[in-house]
């Protein structure tokens, strides 16, 4: 992982594929509405959809605006998930975790 970046890694399970798709659409809208500069999506990492499961593997700059935007995006993804979690790490340091069903 590049220095000065936070990696978000984990997975969520949803009630069905449609719920997963709604969550992903809402999450990206949340991220871009936060006003963060749009890096190329390929440099961010990816969301991999597999049935009703979403695998998250994103690497974003550790700058405060990126961290807040990522937190908002992951809170949206976690809100409607019925299982799973995504952890944020800066190198070997634990930064945060976003559990399914969180509505904080």
Level-1 CATH class name: Alpha Beta
Radius of gyration: 13 Å
The percent range for strand residues is 35-45%
Overall, the morphology is: globular
Secondary-structure element pattern, one letter each = EHHEEHEE
Task: Give the number of helices.
Answer: 3
The largest sheet has its strands arranged as: 2-3-1-4-5
Main β-sheet description? 5 strands, antiparallel
What is the domain total for the residues?
1
> Residue ranges: pLDDT <50 for 5 or more in a row?
none
Query: Could you say what the CATH architecture is?
Result: 2-Layer Sandwich
Structural class: alpha+beta
**Gap from first CA to last CA:** 28 Å
Number of strands: 5
SSE topology sketch:
Blueprint: E1 5-13, H1 17-33, H2 41-44, E2 45-50, E3 53-61, H3 64-79, E4 83-90, E5 93-99
Antiparallel strand pairs: 1-3, 1-4, 2-3, 4-5
Structure description:
The chain has about 100 residues and is an alpha+beta fold. It has a single domain, classed as Alpha-Beta Plaits (2-Layer Sandwich), CATH 3.30.70. Helices cover about 35% and strands about 40% of the residues. It contains three helices and five strands. The chain has helices spanning about 15-35, 40-45, 65-80; strands at about 5-15, 45-50, 55-60, 85-90, 95-100. Strands 2-3-1-4-5 form a five-stranded antiparallel beta sheet. The radius of gyration is 13 Å and the shape is globular. The termini are far apart.
């Amino acid at each position: 992982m590049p220095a000065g970046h936070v990696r978000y890694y984990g997975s969520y399970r949803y009630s069905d594929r449609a719920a997963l798709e709604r969550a992903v659409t809402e999450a990206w809208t949340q991220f871009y509405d936060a006003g963060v500069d749009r890096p190329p999506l390929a440099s961010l990492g990816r969301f991999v959809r597999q049935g009703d499961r979403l695998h998250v593997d994103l690497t974003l700059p550790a700058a405060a605006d990126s961290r807040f935007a990522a937190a908002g995006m992951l809170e949206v993804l976690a809100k409607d998930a019925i299982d799973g979690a995504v952890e944020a790490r800066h190198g070997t340091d634990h930064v945060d975790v976003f559990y399914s069903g969180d509505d904080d």
